[in-house]
């Protein structure tokens, strides 16, 4: 098990419950969808995994880091093992494609030579070599999301969290992003993807965790879905 | 460190307008501080000039012989606070008086005998140049045998004391207020530059950058804002000084101390301003 939620609740000001009594386990190498409408608590759940938010009650364990014992100085180490991609890509607008991806490794203090080699490798895998000198505003939404994926991948993460990764991408680009995520998962990375797009979920034989009003309403495993597809 | 320096300069290059404005605000703040320091230095100089004017004159009785005068001189020197004592004989006093009357020789020729008494001019140590101390020493001397009268310019001493007390208090209050205001202004200006980069800081945190790694380029940036601001403020201040001294002479501008002080204060100010502003962005 790579991620474990135990009785997790997240309450914001004025008693607004973003998450309520979540119990969930994600296995190593799994691909799971978090399905639910806007406001269901999907993003909060992902934020709790990369410890951008701490649970109000309960405990989460991610790669042996527990929310109860982790110290502020350890969070960067956790985040180097957990990649995150967003609907709005969150790229640095003043850096080109190459530098955006390299940035992930620069913060770890890696050697320049190593960074260059790794980034070129990732750019090749993503078929983005020709875009390496361009800035985010010069490329399409789909390509920007691929750069964001590259930035996560270059760290060789154990887990990749994707928060509505196709939300700002055209259908063709969406397909490419999903294929890419499947490939990444096939190489062993655990993927948890939040989405409200039922069509994407229906087309793939992966585990589906349904959320509503901050609670888990259903959890259908991938094998059973594979048979029904 | 190389990364932090590169990042700081990349930021200057990418955000020319913000950089220009921040350096402008820092320059203005440091110029005001520099102006204040310049006024302070000159105020202290004026106080020093006034202080040299404070002295006690003890007029002696006419019947004092040389031996008694020497004895009295030694006695006065034993009083705490007396720094120097100069004897002015009747003849010397007349000589000085004659010089003063050079332009009106008719007055001088009217004087047949020497009416001026011999005297001691007594200089005091700086810390005894207060109204109370001067009055106390004067009265001690006045009670000594052979002393006819003691004068010390009560008004000068009183005025001097008022200037020193008032001036120093005002100066200190102004200094503290200006110092705090400049920290406030500079740190808030730097905060504005950080707000525009909130997204970048968030991304840095997201990919696993440690707080120190995120902080370093910003601290360096703040340091450079202060360095450039301090340099420009010094240039403007020196230019202003040169302009003013065309008409008003005697103003002091200790170049090394003042420029060094402004630049160092600027660097510290920028660094601290940056450190204060970045804190809230780095909470994990």
Which tags fit this structure?
A: 229 residues, alpha/beta, Rossmann fold, four-stranded antiparallel beta sheet, 8 helices, B: 284 residues, alpha+beta, Alpha-Beta Plaits, 2 domains, elongated
Secondary-structure blueprint:
The complex is a heterodimer of chains A (229) and B (284).
Chain A: E1 3-12, E2 16-26, E3 31-35, H1 42-49, E4 57-62, E5 65-66, H2 75-79, E6 82-86, H3 97-106, H4 112-125, H5 141-153, E7 159-163, H6 171-186, E8 190-195, H7 198-203, E9 207-212, E10 215-220, H8 222-228
Parallel strand pairs in A: 3-8, 3-9, 6-7, 7-8
Antiparallel strand pairs in A: 1-2, 1-4, 4-5, 9-10
Helix pairs in contact in A: 3-4, 3-5, 5-6
Chain B: H1 2-14, H2 16-53, E1 55-60, H3 66-77, E2 82-88, H4 90-100, H5 105-110, E3 119-124, H6 131-142, E4 147-151, H7 154-195, H8 198-206, H9 211-247, H10 255-279
Describe the structure.
- Chain A has 8 helices and 10 strands.
- The radius of gyration of chain A is 17 Å and the shape is globular.
- The two termini of chain A are about 25 Å apart.
- In chain A, helix 3 crosses helix 4 (about 110-125) and helix 5 packs parallel to helix 6.
- Chain A has a single domain (about 30-40, about 70-230), classed as Rossmann fold.
- In chain A, strand 7 (about 160-165), helix 6 (about 170-185) and strand 8 form a beta-alpha-beta unit.
- Chain A is α/β, with parallel strands linked by helices and about 230 residues long.
- Chain B is α+β, with helices and mostly antiparallel strands.
- Chain B folds into 2 domains: about 1-50 and about 160-280, no CATH class; about 55-150, Alpha-Beta Plaits.
- Helices cover about 70% and strands about 10% of the residues of chain B.
- Chain B contains 10 helices and 4 strands.
- Chain B has helices spanning about 1-15, 15-55, 65-75, 90-100, 105-110, 130-140, 155-195, 200-205, 210-245, 255-280, and strands spanning about 55-60, 80-90, 120-125, 145-150.
- In chain B, helix 7 packs across helix 10 and helix 9 packs antiparallel against helix 10.
- Chain B is elongated, with a radius of gyration of 31 Å.
- Classes of the chains: A alpha/beta (about 230), B alpha+beta (about 280).
- The interface of A and B includes residues 72, 104 and 106 of A.
């Amino acid at each position: 098990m790579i991620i474990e939620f135990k009785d997790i609740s997240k309450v914001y000001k004025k008693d607004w419950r973003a998450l309520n009594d979540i119990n969930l386990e994600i296995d190593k190498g799994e691909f799971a969808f978090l399905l639910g409408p806007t406001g269901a608590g999907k993003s909060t759940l992902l934020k709790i995994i990369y410890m951008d938010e701490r649970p109000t009650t309960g405990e989460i364990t991610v790669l042996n880091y527990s929310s109860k014992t982790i110290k502020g100085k350890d969070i960067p180490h956790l985040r180097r093992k957990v990649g995150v991609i967003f609907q709005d890509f969150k790229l640095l607008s003043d850096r080109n494609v190459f530098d955006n991806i390299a940035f992930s490794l620069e913060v770890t203090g890696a050697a320049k030579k190593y960074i260059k080699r790794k980034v070129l490798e990732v750019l090749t895998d993503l078929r983005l070599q020709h875009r390496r000198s361009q800035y985010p505003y010069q490329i399409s939404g789909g390509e920007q999301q691929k750069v964001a994926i590259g930035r996560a991948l270059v760290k060789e993460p154990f887990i990749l969290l994707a928060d509505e990764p196709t939300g700002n991408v055209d259908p063709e680009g969406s397909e490419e992003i999903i294929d890419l995520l499947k490939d990444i998962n096939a190489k062993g990375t655990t993927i948890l993807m939040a989405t409200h797009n039922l069509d994407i979920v229906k087309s793939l034989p992966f585990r589906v965790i349904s959320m509503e009003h901050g609670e888990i309403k259903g959890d259908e495993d991938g094998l059973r879905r594979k048979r029904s597809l | 460190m190389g990364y932090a320096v590169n990042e700081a300069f990349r930021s200057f290059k990418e955000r020319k307008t913000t950089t220009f404005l921040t350096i402008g605000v820092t320059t203005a703040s440091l110029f005001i501080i520099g102006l204040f320091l310049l006024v302070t230095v000159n105020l202290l100089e004026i106080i020093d000039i006034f202080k040299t004017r404070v002295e006690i004159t003890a007029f002696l009785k006419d019947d004092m012989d040389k031996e008694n005068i020497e004895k009295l001189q030694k006695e006065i020197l034993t009083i705490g606070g007396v720094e120097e004592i100069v004897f002015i004989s009747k003849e010397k006093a007349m000589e000085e008086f004659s010089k003063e009357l050079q332009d009106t020789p008719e007055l001088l020729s009217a004087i047949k005998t020497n009416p001026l008494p011999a005297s001691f001019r007594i200089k005091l140590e700086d810390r005894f140049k207060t109204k109370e101390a001067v009055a106390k020493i004067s009265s001690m001397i006045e009670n000594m045998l052979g002393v006819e009268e003691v004068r010390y310019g009560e008004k000068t001493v009183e005025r001097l004391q008022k200037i020193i007390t008032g001036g120093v208090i005002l100066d200190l209050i102004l200094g503290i207020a200006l110092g705090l205001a400049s920290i406030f202004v500079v740190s808030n200006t730097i905060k504005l530059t950080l707000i525009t980069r909130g997204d970048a800081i968030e991304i840095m945190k997201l990919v696993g950058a440690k707080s120190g790694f995120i902080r370093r380029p910003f601290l360096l940036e703040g340091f450079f804002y202060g360095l450039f601001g301090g340099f420009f403020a010094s240039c403007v201040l020196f230019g202003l000084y040169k302009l003013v001294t065309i008409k008003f002479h005697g103003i002091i501008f200790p170049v090394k101390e003042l420029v060094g002080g402004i630049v160092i204060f600027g660097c510290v100010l920028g660094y601290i301003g940056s450190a204060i502003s970045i804190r809230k962005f780095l909470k994990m």
